[in-house]
Design a protein that fits this description.
alpha/beta, two-stranded antiparallel ribbon, Rossmann fold, globular, 10-stranded mixed beta sheet, about 35% helix
Length: about 500
Amino acid sequence: MRRMLHRTGRLLRRGFIVLVVLLVALLGLRAWDMSSAPPLRPWHLVVPDELPIAALEAADWAGYLAAENAAFDTVRREVTERLDPEDQVLANRYFAGSPMHGARFVQDWNRSFLLQPDGAPRGAVVFLHGLTDAPYSQRHIAERYQELGFIAFGPRLPGHGTVPAGLTKATWEDWLAATRLAVREARKRIGPGLPLHIVGYSNGGALAMKYALDAIENPGLPKADRLVLISPMIGITAFARFAGLAALPAMLPAFAKTAWLGILPEFNPFKYNSFPVNGARQSWRLTAALQDQLRRMGAAARLDALPPILTFQSAVDATVSTPAVLSALFAQLPANGSEIVLFDINRNAKLGPLLRPEVQVLVDRLLPPAPRRYATVVVGNAGPDQDAVVARLVAAGGTAEEVVPLSIAWPHELYSLSHVALPFPPSDGLYGARPDPAPDEDFGMRLGAVAPRGERNVLVLDLDSLVRASSNPFYPYLMRRIEAVIAASR
């Protein structure tokens, strides 16, 4: 017996040593790989102060905006006004002379917004943006809510909208505390009797769901009457779980660049291009906490108190897990009027064998057999050789499919939507395929209207950011569905 224990202990020690050696080797490779990355610039190093969680719990909207102004003042003093000559280029959003510099816009949508309707409010809505994003991403939907009588709050979540370095310190608990502040303020502005909605995009979709679950377990939190989720981050890749290990060498100043998964030029006026390891880590922590809470509350039959959820999701999504939206969220929901809208691929794209076989049957694999406790809509081609688009509806609890023509056609140049495309109309000044030329839509460039044709090594940006669909040709349909939710909630 002693011999066996001794042998087992020896094997465990050897295994531990092997693991340590492998870990050191991987971290060494990581440090070597990032050694060739561009040097860190001021926007990767300056971290503006944000309100801590305790202060967020006590603050109101005015206090939140005051702290936000202080953060932007820090960026102006310590980044914009101290740029080295080589950073004073038009392609740098932090250069005051750049056409992408936020201070020159009619409205800087990097900052939190509050849109007031004409006349007495009919409700309130809180918009939660995505990771590395800014309130800009939901401004079009917010403006429509405003036109229909809602007060629209768009908080800039901590670490966002300023400099990428802000995301090296922010946590998902900070984002959720800011969510609570905005919802608290929204309910205070409209009183107890009017509808309150939360609209969450990407990482903001996970925050919206987490808040709704917390409001069931904590009676002190104001409850939302409806949730609208756009490309919600219910699940992400397993890599994000271990992303924190990739930043371990950054504990040594010589390897500071390993705190970043990507160090890129900052030309996008409303979204970080550089991505810190901590951002991926916090998103994984948020989705893990959300899925655990969904399972726990589902087992305790407490999800019946959730408000109805309307979700829009591209069937193909390289950022979040579309299957997780169905399996981790919708499979847990009660029969409460929830609905998911899936945007299929363009089956008339004429790409033939270039389309992956598994993508062509993706929607059929995603949806469980009917009947389902929630309604489903699949937006896609009317037929395999047709550009015309239809919506195929199956009601909750039903099996019959209703086909509704949408009077919209798939653009020939698109083979699918993308994670980032859904909340942007084709007229969006930055991401739209047909940008509005109005002065308040001038953000220094037209990313969505660029056709990436030319020679290599000419542009300062990665072509992936141009090839990926950045606006939604079916936005009018998405907006009609949200308008119906607004009308039903009055």
